[in-house]
Amino acid sequence: MKMAVFLGCTVPVRNLSYELSAKRVAGELGLELVDIPEFSCCGYPIKSVHHETAYLLAARNLALAEERGLDICTLCSACTSVLTEVSYELATNEALLDATSETLGMLGKKYSGKVRVKHFVRVLYEDVGLKSIERAIKRPLDMFRIASHYGCHYLKPSKIYDRFDHPEAPESLDRLVSATGAFAVDYRTKKDCCGGAILGVDEETALSMARAKLDDISDRGADAINLICPFCSVMYGANQRKIAANHNVKYDLPILYYPQILGLAMGISHEELGLMQNPIRPRALLAKIS
Amino acid sequence: MESVRKKDVPVVTVLDPKFKYEVAREPGGENIKYCFQCGTCTSGCKVAELDSKYNPRKIIKMVILGMRERVLSGDFIWLCATCYTCHERCPQDVRIPEVMNALKNIAVREGYIHPAFRAQAELIAGHGRLYEIDELANEKRTDWGLTEIPQGCPEVAEIYGITGLFDLLSREVGGKT
């Protein structure tokens, strides 16, 4: 299976360990990820400001994948959101497709509505499949308790994601964690948003949203949070110390990207998965394996 | 009670009864008139739980009443975290996060863009992405065995030019460029 990997803005500059581990694990599982250097911002941050521009940015990216005959595999959930939405709208609204194609023509691009978009983890869940993943496990992580954060745009709006997982009772990430042998920790605030989208508008509220989940997951005795989005990583990883200081609490909760968890279970070294480059170094966690 | 009245009861002369139609014509705003004010959106909203400034049910009612200036000039429309929880649950399929986007798009045209979003839009115009890919970033990528990424993407600015977004970003309150 071959797909174009859409890195977005944040991952290739600030979350290299996510990109590295995803590409490493994909290679082992027979999923070929092709880089397209001309990809730009997905369009998500512009949707609030100017709908048409956001749609054109997304459509241009879809067109670049279509030129190469590839579907898109995303790492960031916000990219997943706008690319899936525009792919869905252009596949179902002929008038919009015509208008969009006409404008893309001014840039020497064309798009006929064929590209499908899936988050990397959804590709693992649906296309690689849990059985293949279980077969690839060489070092079951049964010493770990891991709490998964689904975030929002991996699942919702569920209509444009073909309802591949239930938005009110999601299980794909927990099943993927269980497949590695780790214990999938259930917790009350599992479905809650990280708050990342309003960090620049109301920092206090955004950080309080993130705090509620950090508190909950810590209380449940998890060794780590499983993340699949770089924005969620900003909230739970990069801002974890700030939240702890602001609220006078203490956390020892490393964040891991799912492909890092899977990679460890597949027997890949933590260096090759960039674990020590994560916002919070998972020293205690790694000591548990060795 | 007197002060509450003064603050919350709209003066009839500033209402724009056509505002709801304007919102309904905007991409994302199409279903606003279906709202029957059940409050499912606000009751499940994590932002509303922490910050009383953000109340999606109330914002929709204000639009339907025609409180155009209050809605478009307010910070509160920028507080939707786009988590889509209300979108999934709304029994009338109002698509609230999309309605908030429609309102923000109109607000931008009226010169009320939130500074954080203006900053993002300008960064993306300049670099083609939110974070600049400079030589240092590419050196690090190469060290990690990852492919280099071109610095900048001029087609993004071309798209801004085609859609008129550059002009919108320089608008002042009142919609003047």
- H/E element string of chain B? HHHHHHHHHHHH
Nearest-angstrom radius of gyration of chain A?
Answer: 19 Å
Q: What is the β-strand count of chain B? A: 0
Strand content of chain A: 5-15%
CATH architecture designation of the largest domain in chain A: 3-Layer(aba) Sandwich
Tell me the domain tally of chain B. 2
Oligomeric state: heterodimer
Q: Segments of chain A where pLDDT lies below 50 for 5+ residues?
A: none
End-to-end Cα distance of chain B: 42 Å
Q: In which order are the strands of the major sheet of chain A placed?
A: 2-1-3-4
Largest sheet, strands/sense/barrel of chain B: none
Mean pLDDT of chain A: 97
Keywords, please?
heterodimer, A: 290 residues, Glutathione S-transferase Yfyf (Class Pi), Chain A, domain 2, Rossmann fold, 2 domains, four-stranded parallel β-sheet, 8 strands, globular, B: mainly alpha, Fumarate Reductase Iron-sulfur Protein, Chain B, domain 2, 54% helix
